[in-house]
Amino acid sequence: MTTPKRDTYTPETLLTVAVRIFNERGYDGTSMEHLSKAAGISKSSIYHHVAGKEELLRRAVSRALDSLFAILEEPGAVRGRAVERVEYVTRRTVEVLMAELPYVTLLLRVRGNTTTERWAMERRREFDQRVSDLLKAAAADGDLRADMDIRLATRLLFGMVNSLVEWYRPHPGSGYDGDQVAEAVVRLAFDGLRTDS
Amino acid sequence: MTTPKRDTYTPETLLTVAVRIFNERGYDGTSMEHLSKAAGISKSSIYHHVAGKEELLRRAVSRALDSLFAILEEPGAVRGRAVERVEYVTRRTVEVLMAELPYVTLLLRVRGNTTTERWAMERRREFDQRVSDLLKAAAADGDLRADMDIRLATRLLFGMVNSLVEWYRPHPGSGYDGDQVAEAVVRLAFDGLRTDS
User: Fold this and answer.
1) Residue ranges of the DNA-binding region (chains A, B) (predicted)?
2) Is residue B96 located within the same domain as residue B187?
3) Do B80 and B148 fall into the same domain?
4) Per-residue pLDDT at A196
5) In a designed cystine with A51, which of A55, A78, B59, B109 is the match (CB 3.0 to 4.6 A)?
């Protein structure tokens, strides 16, 4: 038995618990009962902070999306040649994914059964589209291989970046630091594994 | 109400149904009842063909694993420079993934709660390790970038390849044919998106 705790949560600290449970059980598979048990407070205490689990989902995916979209406003993303900008955005996307791992994981697993989920998927596609537009601009500058379909390249690039949520863990001693991973993604995607010959 | 069909299944055709349901509901979330309903035959008819759902899982992931391991015995995987062999294996892995999409999807989603799942994960790691060994050999030949950690490169390469199960669909008009996707993966991974400058 879990002894109910006095409710010392804020909407933000409650969010940390909710995101963990959403990632463990899936959003659809999580009930208010599960959240109440995990937080150690009553359901009515949770309702004191938020309207329900969909509000927790919206706050969580907003945190991931806001961090991702903020990248696109950074100087490295708006100045210079398109190819440099898209490399910058790729590196920063990996960094945000690692820094906000539970939130981005949740965002990537959202499947579209509720209004909030569909909104999150739509925003995610918008972000991908912005990166795709940068890749297109880099191709138009002659800085990307002419034999590569840009929409396909965008999918493969995000496939590689997003796969990090499956294995990257930020604990010390997990093998890689964040900079090393971000650099490896950018080098693999833009320069390839082969030595230039 | 589904009208029960006469049982005209073989273990192989029953497998097609089971794999679809496992991928839709997750292996853990699938009961014999779900399989019986989806196949339109009674549970006892299913038990006539297989010992239970774990046997269906074993047959399904074996099909994916056998196809993947067979690649490593093909002439292109055993002759020539390591870098050519690993490019060959990458291309063929993408082709097998697309040809055996439901089976490889199931293999990649297996999470390790049963003996069969743990065995499948172990075999999958073995396959990844074989590719990693080829990458190491290519690096030793001086054919891969010296600044890339090979274990990390292996993870990123499989991250990109495996992400195909999330969006690639083999229907005509889905946008890409298999050869185009396989070629794009190999070019991106080994030569990168940038033009050589």
Assistant:
1) 31-50
2) yes
3) yes
4) 67
5) A55
B12-70: per-residue pLDDT in tens? 889 999 999 999 998 988 999 999 999 999 999 999 999 999 999 999 999 999 999 99
A1 in any annotated domain: no
Tell me which chain A residues have a C-beta less than 8 angstroms from the C-beta of B151.
175
Whether A116 and A146 share a structural domain: yes
Cβ contact, residue pair A145, B187, below 8 Å: yes
Q: Residue B182: which domain range?
A: 61-191
Please count the other Cβ atoms lying within 10 Å of the Cβ belonging to residue A54. Answer: 14
Q: Both B100 and B187 in a single domain?
A: yes
Q: How many domains does chain A have?
A: 2
Residues A146 and A66 reside in one and the same domain: yes
**Residues A181, A130 share a domain:** yes
The rounded distance, in Å, linking the Cα atoms of B197 and B195 is 6
Chain A CB within 8 Å of residue B119 CB: no
Closest alpha carbon to A190 in B167, B130, B197, B102: B197
Is the Cβ pair A184, B145 closer than 8 Å? Answer: no
Most B-contacting residue of A160, A164, A166, A181 (CB-CB within 10 A), to test interface = A160
ipTM score: 0.90
Does A116 share its domain with A65? Answer: yes
What tokens appear for B166 in the block? 């999330």
Cβ–Cβ below 8 Å for A193 and B148: yes
**Radius of gyration, CA atoms only, chain B:** 19
What tens digit of pLDDT does each residue of B112-171 get? 889 999 999 999 999 999 999 999 999 999 999 888 899 999 999 999 999 999 989 877
Is residue A2 over pLDDT 60? no
CB of B52 closer than 8 Å to CB of B32: yes
Three-state DSSP string of A50-84: CCCHHHHHHHHHHHHHHHHHHHCCCHHHHCCCHHH
Helix (H, G, I), strand (E, B) or coil at B144: strand
